[in-house]
Design a protein that fits this description.
globular; 21% strand; alpha/beta; binds L-homoserine; 15 strands
């Protein structure tokens, strides 16, 4: 019998990307979808391929309805998870919970899912009766897919990273801020950008506009356009941001590494004005000296999404920018070279779509494992 799969938070950015991917891959043929809403209960179900699915949106807070489901997949966010998950479990619901939010990731009964990396562990966990499957933080999944071969062959001693994270990672409000900021500057530039105006005068005017109180920064708090934000998420006691903290913690949980086997990973997470691709720069200390050709072979053989961009300017500009990767499942990694620090130090740069491999795709794929 086909399983009943409940969708919560499918209208937001991650949820919409998830549904689009599921439609592309004909996933809906394999189960019976039930659509829930926290705000539009009773309205019509979504339209797929120009056809509205029969039925109406159910109440995402109605426990009786939720208890009937075999699987719940939620992109609704932390508040929903915190409110509903514990009640459902304590009421004896034994279904599978798939979640994009971070709250349950580090629980001992949860599996962080990124199947090209930990597919065997996911299968084993299902056999062992685990029921809670959570997508990893986007920077973690994108890093792990890019460096999968090095992780799999246990070649990494530590990683130092810098991220260049897209507006989409902060939510749709962040993208809206960024676009309003573009619009606001454009109103000035439309009238003033001509060859007769001194560039320094324009630069001064623009800076003044960006510093005004009415510059649109509702979500980003400070301008993101022509600027960057060197802090993502809350502060941890050790001075890391939570986003930075997740890199080591989630990576090692995915790899099931503990105690002395833990791979040390630390760096700075930074928001930039890209739309939906996160980029990351890595300095990797390898456990041994391996030549670049072998490193590239190990990386590119690991999974079908990662690809090597030759360490040349023209190739990097063509294939290693957020713009060239947006909306795709590609994980290019380039700028691969031995660092001047020594033969065991590898420098590399990689990119991935934050909404696809960074959020929706691992959830879509784990659902297939559970079906
Ligand atoms: N935490 C990420 C970001 C989004 O702020 O870019 C993660 O899925």
């Amino acid at each position: 019998m086909k399983k009943l799969v409940g969708f919560v938070g499918w209208r937001g950015m991650v949820g919409s990307v998830l549904l689009k991917r599921m439609l592309e891959e004909n996933d809906f043929e394999k189960f019976i979808p039930v659509f829930f809403s926290t705000s539009q209960v009773g309205k019509k179900n979504p339209k797929f391929k120009k056809k509205i699915l029969p039925g109406f949106l159910k109440d995402a807070y109605n426990l009786e309805e939720l208890m009937e489901l075999d699987i719940i997949i939620t992109c609704q966010g932390s508040d929903y998870t915190q409110k509903i998950y514990p009640i459902l479990r304590s009421s004896g619901w034994l279904g599978y919970w798939i979640d994009a939010a971070s709250d349950l990731r580090m629980n001992k009964d949860s599996v962080i899912v990124l199947d090209p990396i930990n597919g065997k562990n996911i299968k084993q966990s299902i056999e062992n009766g685990l029921k809670t499957f959570i997508g990893s933080n986007c920077t973690v999944s994108l890093m792990m897919l890019a460096l999968g071969g090095l992780f799999r062959n246990n070649l990494i001693e530590w990683i130092s990273f810098s991220t260049y994270q897209a507006a989409s990672g902060g939510g749709s409000g962040y993208i809206m801020d960024l676009l309003q900021q573009v619009y606001c500057l454009n109103k000035y530039l439309y009238k003033n950008l001509d060859l007769s105006t001194s560039i320094l005068k324009i630069e001064k005017d623009i800076t003044k506009i960006m510093n005004k109180n009415n510059f649109p920064v509702k979500n980003s708090l400070v301008p993101l356009i022509l600027n960057l934000i060197p802090w993502i998420d809350s502060r941890m006691n050790n001075g890391q941001s939570r986003e930075e903290w997740k890199m080591e913690k989630e990576t090692n949980k995915i790899l099931k590494k503990k105690n002395k086997d833990i791979i040390k990973i630390d760096g700075n997470c930074v928001r930039i004005g890209a739309l939906r691709c996160h980029s990351q720069s890595f300095l990797i200390k390898l456990k041994k000296n391996i030549n670049i050709n072998d490193i590239e072979r190990i990386i590119s053989n690991d999974n079908k999404w990662v690809s090597i961009v030759p360490n040349e300017k023209s190739e990097s500009l063509k294939k290693l920018t957020p713009l060239s990767i947006t909306g795709t499942l590609k994980i290019p990694i380039g700028r691969i070279r031995k660092s001047s620090l020594g033969q065991k130090y590898l420098s590399a740069f990689s990119i991935g779509d934050q909404l696809l491999w960074g959020a929706a795709e691992p959830l879509r794929r784990v659902l297939k494992f559970l079906l």
